[in-house]
Each structure stands twice: as structure tokens, then as C-alpha cells.
Amino acid sequence: MKKFGINQRRQQLRKTYWPNAEAWLGPQEKSGWFSGSRTLPLMLDLLDSKAVSGGHQPSKTYLELLSRHWGQGVIEMKHEGQHAYAAGHHSNRALRTWREHMQVLEDQGFIKVVGIGGQKYAYVLLVHPTTVVEQLRIAKKITDPKWLTAYQEVQRESKEVSFEERRKAKLADTAKVVPIKQSPKKKGASSA
Fold first, then answer.
1. Which residue, among 35, 62, 48, 38, has the nearest Cα to 136 in the 3D structure?
2. Positive or negative: CA dihedral 157, 60, 131, 115
3. What residues have CB less than 8 Å from 146, skipping those under 6 apart?
4. 119/67 Cα distance (integer angstroms)
5. Range list of β-strands (E), 14-153
6. What are 125's strand-pairing partners?
7. Tens of pLDDT, residues 84-142
């Protein structure tokens, strides 16, 4: 029996069961797609929890930001109205709701922002999800222990690097940095 890799197996299943269907292939299509963590559904659930966001539900605003991410974790914000509409805010108070949700995202550590002039959200940085979860855990805002267990299990299954593993790797990289020694100044030498 011939061994198949996971991708070949799924491709074969698709051809067998849905030979004429157009499949959603995601980032393989190169443009028009973004990649997300396998823990994203859990992150969206956590974000909408009362312990984290009070009465707000900013998960669609967060998802909209993720979809605008082109790399390096930075989003160059264009028109607030477009962002609000894409996040599902279509009422007369759409911008106000969107701004409230952006504030929740910032307050809870999901994003960091830079404003320019009168525009509060000129640039947005997406904070790494494992960092957000760790900060919320320390702040005791993750109130459902089942959520944390489910999150950690998905991380293990998908081989996502945990906060602790990222921290250790960062410390190891920092330890490798060796400062350049300056040669001692000779007497009578001028410092031009």
C-alpha cells in the first residue's frame, strides 16, 4: 500500500467525494488570502467573553484587522468607515461602535496603535496571540478553565509555539548577542 502525505490524502478525498466542486484552498491561491492561527476561533470566543470585553463583542473587528494584515503584524489603516463596514457595523452608529471595539482590543492587549494628527488609528500592530492569552491569564480574565485547556490542546495538535517556548527562544537569542569591545584609548589620542 502506497503511503500518502496529509495533503495528498485530502486532495484524493476531495477528488473522490466532491470531484466537481470548487474547494476553498486558502492561502495556496497566493493573493486575496491571509493565514490565521489554528487557535483563532478560540481567540475570537475569548475576545467576546464578558470577562474580557464586558458587553462588547469586538471579535469581528479583530477578524477584520487580521484580514488586512500583510505582514510584520502591522496594518496601515485607511478609512475608518471601510474598516467599520467590513467588521459588520452598518448602522448609523457604525463608526462609534467600531471605535469602541478598537478601544477594547487596545485595552485588552490584542493590538497596539499609533495615531497621526487627528487620526487615532493610523497604524495598528497585532500582538502575538500567545502573548495576549498569557497577559489575560495573569490578569485572571480567562474565567473558564475549559477554554484554556482547549486552547492549549489546539496549540499542541497544530504544533503552534507556546508563549513559554517563544519566551525561551527569545532569551536564547538575546544571550547570543555579544557586545563589541572598544579598544582602550591611548594617552594623548584625540577623540575627533
1. 48
2. positive
3. none
4. 21
5. 74-76, 111-116, 119-126
6. 74, 112
7. 999 999 988 999 999 999 999 999 999 999 998 888 999 999 999 999 999 999 999 99
